[in-house]
Amino acid sequence: MDAPKRERSLSPPPSKKRKLESTTTKKAVANFFTPASKKEPEKTAWAIINKGLLIARYNPAKEANRPPVKRRKIAAFDLDSTLIQTSSGNVFAKDPTDWRWWHPSIPNVLKQLHADGFTVAVLTNQGSVSLKDNPKTVKADQRSLAAFRSKVSNIFSRFDFPIVLLAACARDLYRKPRTGMWIELVEDMDLDEGDGPDLRSSFFVGDAAGRTARNGAKADHACSDRDFASNVGIEFKTPEEYFLHEEPLPFTRTFEPGTFLDPASTTSTDATPIVIEKRNALDIVLLCGSPGSGKSTFYWTKLKPLGYERINQDILKTCVKVASNLLAEKDSVAIDNTNSDPETRAVWVQLAQEFGVPIRCVHFTASIKLCEHNDTVRALTSGNFNPEKRTILPHSAFAGFAARYREPQLKEGFQDIVTEEFQFQGTDEQRRIWSQYWI
């Protein structure tokens, strides 16, 4: 059945003056004085997982006593700009009541999906909602959480069938396009064993689809919804495609991990070739590149075996002191910092001159998007990806490097400059994990 075209809200315009009155209903007052044993059970159960994921399970009273049925087909939807939009026309809602359906047909479409045997789920990124215990922002965090819960409860109240919402509220494994929300949903449905969910029949609908500007509409802000569906292995559609039956539009991705996977390269972790030789009995090797460009891996696999001691600290003054002590003891050093600009690099060139030793440069050319991808994989996985147990870096770390970066030149005083281009190397399982969309 073709859904009708999108319509504007039929709500009357707000009056210029509003009479202040209580919003407490007689039913609410009566319910307050009703003994707990006689109160209606709450229709929405809330849970917080790992201080990053908020789960709301809605189960109407008439469904509460029915035995659970395993539903292997999953119909999943993003929330904002997919199921709902603001009534005010603002990008962000003014309050919990500032919403309306993205299209009037949505309640009936979701109800029919439930009748057809689907589990209906909402999977949404909600970065403005905090679930962490931060004493400095506790009041603001509580308000944001309370407002979001109020809006979700209001939305759910329009349904007479079970529905579940998962909201990723931090930069962790739950945030799309990462698959943590899907994994939690599958476990919650008790489908993590046996045949698992029916991926061929399941699908995800979202507006972050990487579409370019079209028909007066702006380009999509991201491609995270499309990438999420790709990571999970289910069909993806935009709201226009699913609810309005429009034809798919062209899209682009700002970063494609697959382009860095050489099919001909080895999958062995112990086959990394040495591309730099120790040319001097005593010298400094300075690494230059963005966070996440592979500098530390380069040191451990290629410089450490050559006898270099690693300098890797945030405070430049401390780094110089440690390096000076090592050089005085006739130990060559590798400076494993970003060293983004000539001014910073000049400090190390001067130190080399003071000790009368050469200084060499290894230039890491990985793009900022690639580096952010590497950093995210490293921080949110375990094992060989993150032996130093680093946490995820803020976006400002990459933007700051890009703003300061100047390509190193021989005229700065380097003996030579070795260019290191990123190429993924790892086991088949590491390759599978790394090749997913993470940012």
TrEMBL record:
Family matches, as Gene3D superfamilies: HAD superfamily/HAD-like, P-loop containing nucleotide triphosphate hydrolases
Disordered as annotated region, ranges: 1-24
InterPro entries named among the record's database cross-references: HAD-like_sf, HAD-SF_hydro_IIIA, HAD_sf, P-loop_NTPase, PNK3P, Polynucleotide_phosphatase
Protein name per its UniProtKB record: Uncharacterized protein
Organism from which the protein derives: Lepraria finkii
